[in-house]
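Revision sheet: structure tokens.
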Amino acid sequence: MDEKIELEVKYTVDDYVRSSSFVQKHTFFSRYGFIIFPAIAFFSLVLYSFFVTKSSARGNQPFLQTALVIFIICFLIFCVLLAIRFLPNPFVRWNLSRQINSAPTAQQTQRVLFDDDGINIQNLLGSGEAKWGAIIEVVESKEDFYFYTAKKFAMFVPKRCFSSEEQQNQLRELVKRKLGDKAKLMNSFER
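Predicted:
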């Protein structure tokens, strides 16, 4: 079967900011840091409250202070993680904007071709390609398709560049056929 899906993609700064954030959130620490630090903070708070009544009469103040310090540190780390994950970072936007403005190839409209061999990206100033064997995972989000070639690096294609839902389904079928379980695609009810 020689299936081809061809797209014209003009990436924006918003696309790059969104994809950078998505790829960063796709890491182990970003996923599980929200469980680890609150758990440590909760455990240290429980220890503190349990021993404060039992130990204060015995003069075990250094232990209580250590438990309280651990709680405060974990709570602050958790707050920073929340801010990084959910608040827009103007520095990231500014930096990506500078990078795009200084890279002529990033400013070009990209012709993206998906076929049985892999992904081919071309513009007036250059081209690149990745065979399906180089793709370690494909993840579909609400707005994009991400093609990971490393744990923290992915090529992406915004869904707004597809002409129809049918064209997106063609890509889903091609990706599923080529990558099997490595494809984390949304079910139709999640779209």
